[in-house]
Design goal:
Number of strands: 3
Order of helices and strands: EEEHHHHHHHHHH
Helix content: 55-70%
Strand content: under 5%
Number of helices: 10
Shape: rod-shaped
Largest sheet: 3 strands, antiparallel
Length: about 250
Amino acid sequence: MTDLIEHDCGHQHADRLGGLVNHEGQLWRDKRQSIGKPGAGLITTASALLFALAIGLLAVSMAAQYRYVLAERHQPAASMIEAAALDLGMIIFSLLALGLARAGQSAKIERGLIVACACGSALMNAAAANAGSPRSLMAWIMPPVFLAIVVDRVVVTIRRHVLAGQLPAAAEHAVPAAAAREPAQPPPVIEPGLSVRQRLIRAYDALEGTDPRHGDKSQLSPLARELAAQVGTRWSSARSVLYRHVNGKGA
């Protein structure tokens, strides 16, 4: 028997995404659902490959930055710390962005900081390259730039994958704000055999005492649109009939 995240599961029915919804529209999900979601295995594999790629590219980038900083500072320990700063910062921000993506958050700030760290690393790498050779520049600045692109796409893909199972269910069970504020009124009972004008007036008068818009001329136009659909006439015609009816009653 499937374990549920929520233990109170009274009055539930299955939704189209495999979760459970109770009579209040609250959504439960199986603990196994995220595991069996289409594409989950591929994204997990891509995330693992990202970490392997990051280890290799950051090692190459750090070596280039160390060469540049050491030539300027001539202090091996300090040069190693400074050379690793931007790459370690990229790792930190990447982990934060991946964590937020798994929670369905956009992580825009973290993704921007990843790009900033990558640009800083690329500039330091370019300083160690042969400035007169485009091939040399590309070889030295490629690792951090390419890694930042891959990290950003993995973060975006994970977030989209997480939200793919949440947004349709949320939209399916959403309750309009107007319906939540006011209880639904039963449609008025209209006697058959009456003219369109008579049915329209009967429908309007039936709302007295049950709909606060009855008698309010400022709400007459939207109310005429609703009643016109009920009696099978045009909105403009219903509005004219109701305006004459209300003005006649007030005279």
